User: What shape does this take?
Amino acid sequence: MKKLITKLKSLSGPQQLIVVTIATIIVCSLINIVVGDNNQADSNSEPQQFYRKGDYQRTGYFLVKANYWGHSKRINTGNEFSSIGKREGTRFVQVNISYYNESSEGRVLSGCGYVTLYNGGRAYKYDMPETILAEGYGLTFETLNPMLTHTTTVVFPIPFTVNGPIYWTPEGGYAVYLGNI
Assistant: This one.
């Protein structure tokens, strides 16, 4: 340990900063691996406690709720350039979400969460939503001023072959039971 500290002291200021930054990232990653997070998809069993559609939950500066959901073979935004056509073996789960900024200043909307589908004793986590450049879809890192609500629809592609109970989990939040697919 003394050799490591001596070697660290012999580095220049920017080199020390780089080494300390890398060490911090490694330690934080290890802590996340050991401690984990609220990720319900790490378990293959359905969550025992969850929110229901329409129930607000606090996630950081926002109150968040899933208003409704649905699934379809294609996404029609009303614009041929931003709509998504039918894809072989894929259906699209759409979750309509409301964010209410309860903070005293503007906050950036940055994450839309993920959906988890439980089937045959396994959990399937879908955390890559479609990028749809149309009004009312997705989050674009926009700022939401205090005491205002932003409502959007997030779309997750999932295979037709997987059926079962489906949950949406917001960033930093807990699972919301949507229904069965």
Q: What stands out?
A: The helical segments are 2-10, 13-35. The radius of gyration is 21 Å. Residues 165 and 180 are 4 Å apart (CA to CA).
